Amino acid sequence: MAVKGEVLIIDDDPDLCEAVRIALEEDGFAVRCASNGLQGLDMMREKRPDLVFLDVIMLTPTEGVYISQEMADDPNLRDLPVVMVTSITSSEYLGLFPTDTALHVDMFLSKPVSLSKFVEVANRFVRPQKR
Amino acid sequence: MIQWQAVEGEIPFETELIERIGWLIRLRWLAVAGTGIALSLGWLLYGQALALLPLAGTILAIALYNSQFYLYARTLQLSQAGLARLQQATRFACLQIVLDLLALSILLHFAGGIENPMALFFVFHIMIASILLSRRVSFLMATLGAVLFAAMAGFEYAGLLPHHPLPIVEGVALYRHGRYVLTVVGVMALTLWLVAYLTSSISVRLRQRDRELVESHRAILARSRELQAANERLRKIDAERTRFMTLVTHELRAPINTVHTCAELALTGYASPETVRDMLERIKRRTSELSELISDLLRLARAREEASRDEKVGVIQPADVLQSVVQLMKTEADSKDLFLSVDIDPDLPPVRANPDRLKLVWTNLLSNAIKYTEPGGIVAVALKRTDREVVGMVRDTGIGIPPEDLPRIFEEFYRAENARALCPVGTGVGLAIVQRIVENWGGKIWAESEPGLGSKFTFVLPRADL
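Output (structure tokens, whole complex):
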């Protein structure tokens, strides 16, 4: 099967990364995983993926927000689609979520997110590539 | 009436007395004006028949001392509230009444003596005395009034003082009638005592009621302050609890989401048997971690609860507890090829603690040291005495704690990044529990570390034998 494109998953939960990785690979995506935001930034700067799934609450309750802002400030990463995967909108951390700045985010997914949803969203954002 | 805002810090009736002194001074101005007008009218009607000069002089004297009183009352009002001021005000009120009684006697003497019906005005002075002053002083004032009146009438009767006849009773020398003088003086004395008795009876009761009111108001104020403080404490506890709940819900929800996703993958048609097995392994591990987290949360909840309630704390030998923990942990250290050194001071003083909880403190600190030290390293436990405390120490040659994480490691669910990397399993609650327990007993705990070289946890507990 032809590789559809590359997805980067940034999540501090290795088990979740693994399950999503398997599901996306099964659907034909290449997948890389980063266990924290800074590692994720390094990886996408090293090799630009086609889509980023970004967890919000990692080491700090809004680490994902910080990473998406870093991406917006980087000309090479600015137009890279970001899907924020978070329980923040339904959690008590909601108050910490910035409302004063426009977030560099293309879509929000509220946890728990089913694997089929991950696959569906990945297909929506990653355009078929000619190889 | 008592002014409520003046109640605090003042003696009941102090304010009242000072207010009434002001009122008395105002009344006296009225009296000065009234007697002035009466004198002018008398002079217009009777002219020379009136002892104009002494009467006018007395009224002037009253006006003079009243202006002095007015000034003094103002300084009194401004001075520091308290017992000293209350005594000052009382003496001041006594002086005024004595002077008033004297002034009234002099006025009467120069205006017909016993023949002047204004002698009844003594009643007002005694009323005022009874309102302002204690019952005993009121009777003294009544007696003084009676004595002054009797002296005036007696001296005039005996011819020791000249009689200044009142023009309205011309031709009748009542002051020379012994039985009449005696009767009037007797009735006057009796009237004054009765007035003192009746008025002070009422005012004593009113004062009692005021005192009760002031006391209950004070009690209410004190109570409301207590309630305010308690409210503030509860608010803080509630905020802390909310923060804690936020952490807990996230820490519980995240692994459940992951378990759900892993199960979902295992159930899909395309998952290979290896993938299914792997996912099931992950689910098993995560659920056991979750269960461990819940146990930790319960322990933490217990430690928190014990902070507000007396747990079973006794005087115990800290060395015994450490020995039993070391025995338990020795196998764990051995299996990781760690050297476990134990250094316990002989004849340690006892501490006030709960043996099970102290065991938990040592176990948590020791298992951390073992967990974060690479095979071949050293874990050293020591229990020492100082003048006032017993000091426990756990040192290791492990991965250490980065300086930026060091201040936060006692926070609930907080785990240093290198700790997460080395050992993904862990709730981040252990040190929070340890800190709670140690602080519950009046102790302290702190950590020092150099990344890569090792960490040292020290806790102190106050000696129980001091």
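The first helix of chain A runs from residue 14 to 26.
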